[in-house]
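Margin note from the TA: students keep mixing up input and output lines. Inputs are the sequences; the output is the structure of the whole complex. Example:
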Amino acid sequence: AQSVTQLDSQVPVFEEAPVELRCNYSSSVSVYLFWYVQYPNQGLQLLLKYLSGSTLVESINGFEAEFNKSQTSFHLRKPSVHISDTAEYFCAVSAFNSGAGSYQLTFGKGTKLSVIP
Amino acid sequence: EAQVTQNPRYLITVTGKKLTVTCSQNMNHEYMSWYRQDPGLGLRQIYYSMNVEVTDKGDVPEGYKVSRKEKRNFPLILESPSPNQTSLYFCASSLYSYNSPLHFGNGTRLTVT
C-alpha cells in the first residue's frame, strides 16, 4: 500500500526565518502531488500541486515545493515565514493502485508549523 | 461562490442515536469523499463516490453509510454512533478523482457521549 511520510509532526520557527517541511512517499509509479494547508478551525485548502512539467512549483504566498522522483520526495519550503503561516500542512500523493484498479489519494499525518514572533 | 457546505458545524449526541451530516457542493464535481481527522492520525478516508449512485469504501468505513442520489449531495450517516466516532469530519469534492485538487468543507466536529 502507498504511504506518505511527513517526517516532522511539529516545526517551530522564528518569524522571517526559512522553513522546510519534508514529505516522502512510497509509490514507484507516476504520481500527482499536493500540499494542503489547514488554518485553525477551517477545512484544508490547496497550497500547491505537481501534476507534470517543471519539478519546481510555487504558490501565490511564497511557498514552493520540488518534486524529486529519485528520492520520492516533495518537500515544501519558504525562504521567510510570517506569523500568518502558522497552520498545519498536509502532503498528499495520488497514485494508481493496481490492486484496486483505480487511483488512490493518500495523505500524510500533517506537520504543524508554528511561527514565533 | 464555489464551495463545499457541511452541516452542522458542531454536533453532540448520545450513543446509538442515528444522525446525518449533510454535504453539498456547487461546482458540478464528479468526485466526493468523506474524511475523519484525529490527532496524530491525520486524515483518513471513510467513503468516496466517483459519480451519482457510485460509492465505495475508504480506509475506515465501519459504522458509516453514505449515499449519492444527486451529484451535488453526499450525506454521511451514522446509524448507531459510538464514542470512538467522536472526531472532526470533512467532506471534500473534486472534478476528477486522480489529479484534481480537493475542495474541502469547513468540517463537522462530532462528539458522541
